[in-house]
Amino acid sequence: MAIVKSKLIKQLKKSYPNFLIKDLEKISKIILEEIKKSLKRGERVELRSSIGIFYTKTQKASIRRNPKTSEKIAVPEKKVIGWKMSKELFKKINKK
Q1: Core-most of 14, 44, 74, 95, by most CB within 10 Å?
Q2: How far apart are CA 33 and CA 60, in angstroms?
Q3: Strand residue runs (E) in the chain
């Protein structure tokens, strides 16, 4: 099951009942925007102890095949987001 922003806000409200919902929405929006801006500038975003590290890398231009038509398509060079999981998250997921 995926978590959406509204469920995240509700969970934060349970954990921090003294904060107003509109303040929690602003905080989460600011954090996500800063992550986006940093990645756009080519910087790494490190949330080491909880989530991991986000970074951008360049994917080389290539020739790919359309699976429906088998037509060859030239895909230009582009930036993609990479992610490395934190050790703590790995342990929680794998229960080690």
Answers
A1: 44
A2: 27
A3: 45-47, 52-59, 62-65, 72-75, 78-85
